[in-house]
């Protein structure tokens, strides 16, 4: 059940208690709802720590798989049913045929939506050459939430992405160069590491 479905069931139970002349106080209702939400949050974080079958895919395979899933979703079709149907009828699955050839049905059966969601979230937070993003003036000047110099967002295009290696994953960083509509360019250091809050997808 999703969090919304659980909340709806609880609200229905609260109403049933009212009808049965055993009403809960607002405090009791809030405690129950809060406990449910906290439990759901902990459950979601545990799910993310579980081994993800998609971790076995290399970058190119993952890109092809996610493209396939997103296309099937846009077509209101089940991506898993489509693959299984192809495999059952010995049809070629095109760009994702490698899933059958290398990983098989048992691997496919392990994949849940939260596995896919993890990578889709990562993909949404990743910038690529040619992406249009918006950057905040906080990158180059002091800004205050309230004051003479407040946050402003400027549209630009990513023209270079450089991964700067370090001795460990913690020390490595990613820089990028963006070009504004007026032709000026700006290098953003630590685009994911320490400046993530200063850019957004445009």
Shape designation: flat
Helical stretch tally: 6
Mean pLDDT comes to 83
User: Approximately how much beta-strand content do the residues carry?
Assistant: 15-25%
Q: What order do the SSEs take from the amino end to the carboxyl end, as H and E?
A: HHHHHHEEEEE
Q: Which runs of at least 5 residues are low in confidence (pLDDT < 50)? A: none
Number of strands: 5
Secondary-structure map with pairings?
Elements: H1 3-19, H2 26-49, H3 59-74, H4 79-88, H5 97-110, H6 113-124, E1 132-136, E2 153-164, E3 173-180, E4 185-188, E5 199-201
Antiparallel strand pairs: 1-2, 1-5, 2-3, 3-4
Helix pairs in contact: 1-2
What do these coordinates show?
The structure is a single chain. By secondary structure, the chain is of the alpha+beta class. It folds into three domains: 3-49, no CATH class; 53-124, no CATH class; 132-201. Helix content is 46%, strand content 16%. The protein has six helices and five strands, in the order ααααααβββββ. It has helices spanning 3-19, 26-49, 59-74, 79-88, 97-110, 113-124; strands at residues 132-136, 153-164, 173-180, 185-188, 199-201. Strands 4-3-2-1-5 form a five-stranded antiparallel β-sheet, with no helix packed on it. Strand 3 (173-180) and strand 4 (185-188) form a beta hairpin. It is flat. The two termini are 34 Å apart.
